[in-house]
From TrEMBL:
<dbReference type="Pfam" id="PF00155">
    <property type="entry name" value="Aminotran_1_2"/>
</dbReference>
<keyword id="KW-0456">Lyase</keyword>
<feature type="domain" description="Aminotransferase class I/classII large">
    <location>
        <begin position="38"/>
        <end position="384"/>
    </location>
</feature>
<dbReference type="InterPro" id="IPR051798">
    <property type="entry name" value="Class-II_PLP-Dep_Aminotrans"/>
</dbReference>
<dbReference type="InterPro" id="IPR015422">
    <property type="entry name" value="PyrdxlP-dep_Trfase_small"/>
</dbReference>
<dbReference type="GO" id="GO:0047804">
    <property type="term" value="F:cysteine-S-conjugate beta-lyase activity"/>
</dbReference>
<dbReference type="InterPro" id="IPR004839">
    <property type="entry name" value="Aminotransferase_I/II_large"/>
</dbReference>
<dbReference type="InterPro" id="IPR027619">
    <property type="entry name" value="C-S_lyase_PatB-like"/>
</dbReference>
<comment type="similarity">
    <text>Belongs to the class-II pyridoxal-phosphate-dependent aminotransferase family. MalY/PatB cystathionine beta-lyase subfamily.</text>
</comment>
<dbReference type="InterPro" id="IPR015424">
    <property type="entry name" value="PyrdxlP-dep_Trfase"/>
</dbReference>
<dbReference type="InterPro" id="IPR015421">
    <property type="entry name" value="PyrdxlP-dep_Trfase_major"/>
</dbReference>
<keyword id="KW-0663">Pyridoxal phosphate</keyword>
<protein>
    <recommendedName>
        <fullName>cysteine-S-conjugate beta-lyase</fullName>
        <ecNumber>4.4.1.13</ecNumber>
    </recommendedName>
</protein>
<dbReference type="GO" id="GO:0030170">
    <property type="term" value="F:pyridoxal phosphate binding"/>
</dbReference>
């Protein structure tokens, strides 16, 4: 089947956070949204058909998760990520962020330290410093082109006896790194050495560009699997965030039981009948759609690269290895972060994420969502160009 990622679909008045919450989030409803990690593409046809079937049945009582639900994820992980997972390891949670929060509460206590690596997905900050936990930042290194982990600093931070957890983003949002097996092995060995739990948020695991390979942290060795909790979901891959369905994979039996107990306390183990159907259909039948999506995203990325090089050469695109979020260094534009934000909103009328929300190390950067039809991307970039070039040429 050929999918039509070029087709523009009006999302106004659909309760879309990306399109309908602009006034509330940015103070102006009349903006072109290029922010939150949500794609302007319909889900695979197979997913839509599965949802219609559930709707047509018409009874939406309490729902259980069938074996086929687990099997769809087990097969997907083995086929696409060479990770053999057992059914008993798989838990659920409506969203990855609620899961991260629950896990922090279940596995750490007030006074414990949790390491994050900024600039990073902004909810990590509130998750890691909730209820008396202390956030510790192992800031990523940036040489002007590519981000790397500062291993020396990481070891210093993990070796503090108060440090109990590494909240890891893999692939990394917003810097777009797909960590190599070598890098992951180094991180894992440090966690093992210092007895630190690895909480690996791998929600972007399927969105990987050519030439790169995502390695699930827990797939590297039995030892790593034993100290890890991995969060995945079909929500980013297939644009199903509104269905609220994610999987929390915990191979270690004791850790698994602790998670399940915490989820039970919250009565969070129930299922949504639409989410189950979509999850299964996506993992069983969505592969071709994903391949075509990735090709489309690469073309959009090529377009962004060429556009910035030719039209806004003072801003530089940090090459993403995965995700559909592009991190752009605007520090050479000669505008303060606040001024850039004001101009993009008030003049360009474009809503994107300002880098400083991802931590101090993100100041002066912007994060652009390229998962939209090329015509929308082009419109957004033209608006940014007109505004930026007007103000920097002064
Ligand atoms: C790294 C990361 N984790 C989690 C989420 C959100 O997950 P959920 O909607 O399942 O809470 C996002 C969304 O952008 C993300 O980038």
């Amino acid at each position: 089947m050929a999918y039509h990622f070029d087709k523009v679909i009006d999302r106004h008045n659909t309760n879309s956070l990306k399109w309908d919450a602009l006034k509330e989030r940015f103070g102006d409803a009349d903006l072109l949204p290029m922010w939150v990690a949500d794609m302007d593409f319909p889900a695979p046809g197979e997913v839509i058909e599965a949802l219609k079937k559930v709707a047509d049945h018409g009874i939406f009582g309490y729902t259980i998760r069938p074996d086929s639900f687990y099997q769809s994820l087990i097969n997907w992980l083995e086929r696409r990520h060479h990770w053999k997972v057992e059914k008993e390891w798989i838990n659920i949670c409506p969203g990855v962020v609620p899961a991260l929060s629950l896990i922090v509460q279940a596995f750490t206590k007030p006074g414990d330290q949790i390491v994050i690596q900024s600039p990073v997905y902004h909810p990590f900050f509130s998750v890691a410093q909730q209820k008396g936990r202390e956030l510790v930042d192992n800031t990523l290194l940036f040489d002007g082109k590519r981000y790397e982990i500062d291993f020396e600093d990481l070891e210093k931070k993990l070796s503090d006896e108060r440090c109990k957890m590494l909240l890891f983003c893999s692939p990394h949002n917003p810097v777009g790194r797909v960590w190599t097996k070598d890098e992951l092995t180094k991180v894992g060995n440090l966690c093992l050495k210092h007895n630190v739990l690895m909480l690996s948020d791998e929600i972007h695991f399927d969105l990987i560009f050519k030439g790169h390979k995502h390695t699930p942290f827990a797939s590297i060795s039995k030892e790593f699997a034993d100290i890890s909790i991995t969060c995945v979901a079909p929500s980013k891959t297939f644009n199903l965030a509104g269905l609220q369905s994610s999987a929390i994979i915990i191979p270690n039996k004791k850790l698994n039981e602790t998670y399940q107990k915490s989820l039970d306390i919250e009565d969070g183990n129930m299922s949504n009948s639409f989410a189950i159907a979509a999850f299964e259909a996506a993992y069983n039948n969505g592969e071709q759609w994903l391949e075509e999506l990735l090709t489309y995203l690469e073309k959009n990325l090529d377009f962004v690269n060429k556009f910035f090089k030719e039209e806004i050469p003072n801003a530089s695109v940090v090459q993403p290895e995965g995700t559909y979020l592009v991190w752009i260094d605007c520090r050479k534009l000669g505008l303060s972060a606040k001024e850039l934000e004001r101009l993009l909103l008030k003049e360009a009328k474009v809503a994107l994420n300002q880098g400083y929300i991802f931590g101090k190390s993100g100041e002066g950067f912007i994060r652009l969502n390229i998962a939209c039809p090329k015509s929308i991307l082009e419109e957004g970039l033209n608006r940014i160009k007109a505004t930026v070039n007007k103000h920097i040429s002064k």
